[in-house]
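INTERNAL AUDIT FORM
Audit reference: QA-55
Scope: verify that the stored structure record matches its stored sequence.
Auditor: D.O.
Record contents follow.
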Amino acid sequence: MKQLTIDDVIGSFNYNAISTSEKFLNPSYEVHFYDKEERQKMDCFDAKTETEAWNATIEEHGKGIQKIRITHSNRTRAEFLALD
């Protein structure tokens, strides 16, 4: 009889972690806004400040948008785009 390993019991696990310094040195923000047709949308941007995140939203989605809120995100933009 073979002794089981933890991988045998729960399956393999991705052990890659984001270091604390990476998390705080490369912040990202979720920007919630209404587009030109007044539909609510959300996008995520890697930016150092909320103002930079809002400016990036305007550059990407155009000037006719209205801000709802901007919050700090636990995901990077790459992780957010990978969800689609």
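Auditor finding: record pair retrieved intact. The chain is about 35% helix and 25% strand.
Action required: none
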